[in-house]
Design goal:
Chain lengths: 138, 125
């Protein structure tokens, strides 16, 4: 049995890594796809061409690497913590994505969209503060 | 616009069901105590022997390529917040398919997520 304090620390560290790697990965993928430009699919050959372009983009590979790191942290934390605890703990990631998109990719974000992102974070947080188990009562 | 909606829906539904499958797979393996690379490798080797893991990974791959498609059309500050709709999908799916009782407080959170996503849509241009 792991001590409660140790369990909290390793949960905290892995959730922090999730919040860092996940948004960075998404932003990197976005950068990669924007570099490729709009996709038009008219024939199977187009799909192959786009596929080749995708896997030649360094930003896509960086994004995939970061999301893999995110995924490994996620898998590890899920081996002991509840899904319904881990998912809401990542709510802050939505704000991190918006901040990174704004500062790294210079995406214009309207005040309405900022408000939307904040409301989403709040909503995700509230979802997380509910009972994790409802199917069985002792 | 139609394509974009399909891609966003795939991200939400394939992603959420993929995560649920992966969670189920990892729970059969049990808590990870040892973080040395060799032990982590052993955990991963055990993980890929669980069929739920494969189903989960396949669904997450679908979600991933849908994400790439959506990101080629839209800004990441639009796409990622919209994927928060997976919380609504999760609550609905839990209640309908798994017979979970979703509390009023949880529905309130889901409602807020939906309001937030609506604002993100409205703040598009």
């Amino acid at each position: 049995m792991t001590s409660s304090a140790g369990l909290h620390l390793k949960t905290f560290v892995l959730i922090f890594l999730m919040i860092l790697f996940g948004p960075l990965g998404n932003v990197s993928l976005s950068k990669g796809m924007k570099t490729i430009g709009p996709i038009s699919l008219h024939s199977p050959a187009d799909l192959l061409r786009v596929g080749v372009q995708i896997f030649q983009s360094p930003f896509i590979w960086l994004g995939v690497l970061l999301l893999l790191l995110f995924f490994v942290s996620y898998l590890l934390v899920l081996s002991w913590a509840d899904y319904s605890f881990v998912q809401p703990a990542g709510s802050i990631a939505y704000a991190v994505v918006a901040l990174l998109a704004h500062f790294l990719l210079k995406e214009p974000i309207s005040p309405t969209r900022w408000a939307g992102v904040c409301v989403i974070c709040l909503g995700v947080l509230i979802v997380g503060h509910t009972s994790p188990r409802t199917t069985e009562q002792k | 616009m139609a394509w974009e909606t399909v891609l966003l829906l795939l991200i939400v539904f394939a992603g959420t069901s993929g995560e649920l499958c992966v969670t189920r797979a990892m729970k059969t393996i049990g808590e990870v105590h040892d973080f040395r690379p060799s032990s982590l490798l052993r955990v991963m080797l055990r993980a890929i022997q669980v069929p739920w893991m494969w189903l989960g990974v396949a669904l997450m791959a679908v979600a991933f390529f849908s994400l790439l498609g959506a990101l080629s059309m839209e800004n990441v500050s639009f796409v990622v917040p919209v994927t928060a709709l997976s919380y609504a999908a999760g609550a609905l799916g839990g209640q309908v398919f798994l017979g979970e009782r979703v509390s009023r407080r949880r529905w309130l959170g889901v409602l807020l997520v939906c309001i937030g996503v609506t604002l993100v849509f409205l703040g598009r241009k």
